[in-house]
Amino acid sequence: MSIRRNQVASMEDPNHGGGGEDLDLFQKHLTDRLLSLLGDGDGGGGYTLLTLPWLHKLLDAFLLSVEEFKATSSPSIHHDRPIVEFLDRTIKVLDVCNAVSDAVDSFRLLHRQAEIAVSALDRKVLLEGQFVRARRALSTLLLSVAPGERDGIRCAERNRSFGRSKLATTSIQDRGSGGRYLRSISCVAGRTWSPGKHVQAMSANLAPPRGGIASADAAAYGMSSFLVFVAWTLVAAFFPAQNRGPASLACPPRHLAWSEPLMRLQEKIADEWRKREKKGSSNSSSSLGLLVEVQRLEKCARGLVSSDRNQTEEIGAFVDELAEACRGLDEGLPPLQRQVREVFHRIVRCRAVLLDCLNQRNRSATTAQSTGS
Question: How is this protein positioned relative to the membrane (predicted)?
């Protein structure tokens, strides 16, 4: 109760409690967190950009920023519009969180198909039946990655099937463990709902404040910018190109301390995006998102499906890389999904606190007007 009374008092008195210093500190911490994500090496702050460990670090930084923003902004609300716009964006990011969680479930199914292939191929003597079992699992994986390549994958299966015509004529999608349950990743979010359009709507009208960088409006702008960046990055990592939305985001004003590391991160991810699109257009692949571990999964699957059983060295190299990618997914996907859910719940709680403060402020203003009249 005493905390709530202090919040009400601070809303009535703009100079209460040194809120400007807290807002300055929030923006400094935001800058530091973005710099830690950027790092000095490959742009991952110790981790490779767009890997699962890097995404963990990104969401950790976001969760810390949400908590700090909630604590510093709730007693410093003097203008409704920046906070209301932030709250509108949070509704959209909740939808993105749900879509990403569904995509993680689909990636786990890809992971399972890859594990079947590794189990079949990871042995000294490779028998024909083991090779066929692995190829079925990998073909199922690739059909979920790029359903438009069905004919090409079947052709590869037929050409390498050791004369067994029944393998070529049987539907790949209905053969192999779990194949009938594996959906295309492009269908995860539904045929009409687009995570990319959600991100585009979030970034629309994201205008910098007119006041100084220590104002509450500037803090809301910084938090909104980080919110949009996180949603954009998650969509880029987990969804095919047709569902990702804009390939770049608007640049914040350079006088804001956190703008430079944020823009550098955006540029690096946009570069990866362009490289992937160029590679996809060259092989007519719809492919998955930019998540490094899943890209490696796809690369190894394509290599193994097009390999001959007698190419033992080449197969061995692909199997080693595929096994490493499986370990990365096994270690990284479950905690990331829990983290995405935590982001969802933290945003819900942040919304509740800010809405409560806005309502109290508006009630106080209405009471003051009634008393004055």
Answer: Single-pass membrane protein
Token pair listed for 171: 């539907």
Q: Which residue has the tokens 């490094």?
A: 292
Could you tell me if 297 and 110 are in contact, meaning their C-beta atoms sit under 8 angstroms apart? yes
CB 40 within 8 A of CB 321: no
Residue spans per domain, the chain:
2-372
Other C-beta atoms closer than 10 Å to the C-beta of 308 total 12
| 357-373: pLDDT as tens digits | 888 877 776 776 667 65
- Does the pTM surpass 0.90? The reply is no
End-to-end CA distance of the chain: 30
- Kindly report, residue by residue over 134-148, the tens digit of the pLDDT: 999 999 999 887 655
Q: By C-alpha distance, which of 146, 72, 192, 142 is closest to 306?
A: 142
| Residues 239 and 185 sit within 8 Å (Cβ to Cβ) | yes
Q: Return d(Cα 161, Cα 128) in angstroms, integer.
A: 9
